[in-house]
Predict the structure.
Amino acid sequence: MERRRKYDRQFKIEAVRLVTEERRRASEVAGDLGIHVNLIYLWKKQLSADGDEAFPGLGKLKSSDAELRRLQRELADVKEERDILKKALAIFSKKPR
């Protein structure tokens, strides 16, 4: 089984630059770099969509994704606190016998 190769941010940016700025064919650049041509198209799309935040690497998230994850965690905490308070209210609102 072949291991998946990882490419750093500079490598991806340089590959896209060769295609966009130097007007080289994507298939030619891919062949020179030893990668599949679809990777160049994918990286070009990511770079145009995310700009400076493209390819954060090493498990880091784009700032928008990090904010979304933080808000999802916060929402889960608030829901858990709400459920605890509902249970406590139900326990304390029972009439003593």
User: Anything to note?
Assistant: The two ends are 69 Å apart (CA to CA). The mean pLDDT is 86. Residues 4 and 51 are 25 Å apart (CA to CA). The longest helix spans residues 63-92.
